[in-house]
Amino acid sequence: MATAPSSLDRSPTLAARRERVFFGGMTIAMLATVIAGFGPTYYFSSVSSSTVVLTPSLQLHGAAFTTWMLLLAVQTTLVAAGRTDVHRRLGVAGAVLGALMMVLGAYVAITRVRAGLMVPPAGLPVGVLLAVAL
Predict the structure, then answer these.
(1) Could you give the CA distance from residue 80 to residue 19 in angstroms, rounded to a whole number?
(2) CA distance 5 to 2
(3) Which of 37, 51, 93, 132 has the fewest Cβ atoms within 10 angstroms?
(4) Residue 7, pLDDT score
(5) Is the pLDDT confidence value at 106 over 60?
(6) In Å, how far are 34, 104, 121 from 56, measured between CA atoms?
(7) So what's the pLDDT on residue 14?
(8) pTM of the predicted structure, to 2 decimals
(9) Taking a C-beta distance cutoff of 8 angstroms, is the pair 54, 62 a contact?
(10) Which whole number is the average pLDDT over 11-28?
(11) Which residues, 6+ apart, have CB-to-CB distance to 71 below 8 Å?
């Protein structure tokens, strides 16, 4: 007689363990890339020689996108720990944050182009640069 798998059996299969290692590793790689890329101009701007002026909109933009990356790390950890119930509840906050990021990203891109702070490479129309940024 066959028995149904127990819901208490939490031992992951080899494929599930590989997925957890992959997604955990990719999350760490993404966090490292963000820190390396934005470290001089955002995270460590007070101790670096960056000339970027962090306006309130840029600070809010940076905070929202940093929160997005931290949420990714938390969500990945929750799934790896088998806490998909909490992962799903936090997903609602992620959806709200995602909508906020779209608005902030568009606002920052448009205001930076208007102020002449986002300059396209030679031969590229400013509209193309803005379309890519958006």
Answers:
(1) 9
(2) 9
(3) 51
(4) 54
(5) yes
(6) 20, 11, 26
(7) 84
(8) 0.76
(9) yes
(10) 86
(11) 90, 93, 94, 97
